[in-house]
């Protein structure tokens, strides 16, 4: 008995061969890239830098926005976010208002705290990220404890110094040099 087998057409065979060649090229490219990465020195910088300003796409050696030797790259830590804090108000006015049935006089402070840090210090960056809750608590407790009369004549530099001292007492792997209040509003 004679059996006939359909042989795929030439078009399907050509497509199959093209797919096989593309897959082989991808495998060779992955192996070559892995070998290059394995044999490259650990302190070498990136070959291509994407992002970071004007003329940053391209080779690093050709003005790709790389940091010069001896310079430190700084970033701004804004992980604390915007805080909305209700202050203590005036204790004597609050007692008399409560006795007379009036609402206590308090204010709401809206504040964003930011500070620069060295971006290449990964351990310190991780420590900052892990202490966001404590940073928020320190700032909240500081401003919530201020009576209304002190809030009306708030000394920003003193507040920054007090909060900075408390933040640095919390940190073990580095220090924060300066704080910025990017938003500071007192709503009565």
Describe this structure as you would to a colleague:
The chain folds into two domains: 8-38; 74-187, Tetrahydropterin Synthase, Chain A. The chain contains six helices and four strands; from the N terminus they run αββαβααααβ. The protein has 188 residues and is α+β, with helices and mostly antiparallel strands. It is elongated and about 105 Å long. Helix content is 44%, strand content 15%. The protein has helices spanning 10-39, 91-100, 122-130, 132-144, 148-152, 156-170; strands spanning 74-77, 82-86, 108-118, 180-187. Helix 4 (132-144) packs antiparallel against helix 6.
Concise account of the structure shown:
The protein has 188 residues and is an alpha+beta fold.
What keywords describe this structure?
alpha+beta, four-stranded antiparallel beta sheet, Tetrahydropterin Synthase, Chain A, 188 residues, 6 helices, 15% strand
